[in-house]
């Protein structure tokens, strides 16, 4: 098994919002999970550790995806 920080349908590139951002490489199904962005861990600030995927999510006034939180992470 090989570790891949991003699924094949996502890429990182320059963002018009700030720095680098996460972008889809194709149209995605509405309910497609993009992956785990933060893992619950009380040893870190705000009780989470950010994954590589979470490091490139930018905020937007017109978001096209949403966060879902459970007991293990976001």
Q: How is this structure best described in words?
A:
A two-stranded antiparallel ribbon has the order 1-2. A two-stranded antiparallel ribbon has the order 3-4. Helices cover 0% and strands 22% of the residues. The model has no long low-confidence stretch (mean pLDDT 85). 5% of the residues are buried. With 74 residues, the chain is mainly β. It has strands at residues 10-14, 20-24, 38-40, 48-50. The chain contains no helices and 4 strands.
Précis, in short:
With 74 residues, the chain is an all-beta fold. 0% of the residues lie in helices and 22% in strands.
The Rg value, from CA coordinates, equals 13 Å
Helix share, percent? under 10%
Task: Bin the strand percentage.
Answer: 15-25%
Overall pLDDT confidence: 85
Sheet with the most strands: spatial strand order: 1-2
Query: Which runs of at least 5 residues are low in confidence (pLDDT < 50)?
Result: none
Coarse morphology: globular
| N-to-C SSE string, H for helix and E for strand | EEEE
Give me the count of strands. Answer: 4
């Amino acid at each position: 098994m090989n570790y891949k920080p991003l699924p094949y349908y996502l890429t990182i590139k320059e963002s018009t919002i700030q720095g680098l951002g996460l972008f889809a490489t194709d149209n995605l199904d509405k309910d497609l999970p993009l992956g785990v962005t933060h893992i619950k861990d009380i040893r870190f600030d705000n009780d989470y550790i950010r994954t590589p995927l979470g490091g490139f999510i930018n905020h937007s006034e017109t978001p096209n995806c949403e966060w879902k939180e459970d007991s293990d992470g976001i």
